[in-house]
Amino acid sequence: QVQLVESGGGLVQAGGSLRLSCAASGRTFSLYGMGWFRQAPGKEREFVAGISWSGGIKHYADSAKGRFTISRDNARNTMYLQMNMLKPDDTAVYYCNTNEQALRFPWGQGTQVTVSS
């Protein structure tokens, strides 16, 4: 069973940047397309960005296009989300998991991102 640990969140001013990391245990990480998700207070968890198992295909929610970049390093069992030009609406707890709902691992604790105006 893969365990996921998110890190890299914090408090940043609007327009700032953060780089999130998702560390996965286990040897099967590289077999899965992965994604970043976020959940703001009082809202449902939503998709932010996804990446194929090889890293060759990436896709983004409209809210993330042009500002966020997803990447992965299968040798390190780690996925990243570079977030630039952050906005207060980006404030949420960010999680990583597989792209496919039927193949989801247990959710980690997430990492809090807070963007002040």
What does this structure look like?
There is one protein chain. The chain is mostly beta strands and 117 residues long. It contains no helices and 10 strands. A 6-stranded mixed sheet has the order 2-10-9-4-5-6, with no helix packed on it. A hairpin with a 6-residue loop joins strand 5 and strand 6. It is globular and about 40 Å long. The N and C termini lie far apart (40 Å).
Short description:
The protein is an all-beta fold and 117 residues long.
Number of strands: 10
Low-confidence stretches are: none
C-alpha termini separation:
40 Å
Output the helix-strand order.
Answer: EEEEEEEEEE
The Rg value, from CA coordinates, equals: 13 Å
What is the molecular shape?
globular
Q: How does the major sheet shape up?
A: 6 strands, mixed
Q: What portion of residues belong to β-strands? A: over 45%
The number of helices is 0
Helix content: under 10%
**Looking across the biggest beta sheet, what order are the strands in?**
2-10-9-4-5-6
SSE class: mainly beta
Average pLDDT score:
95
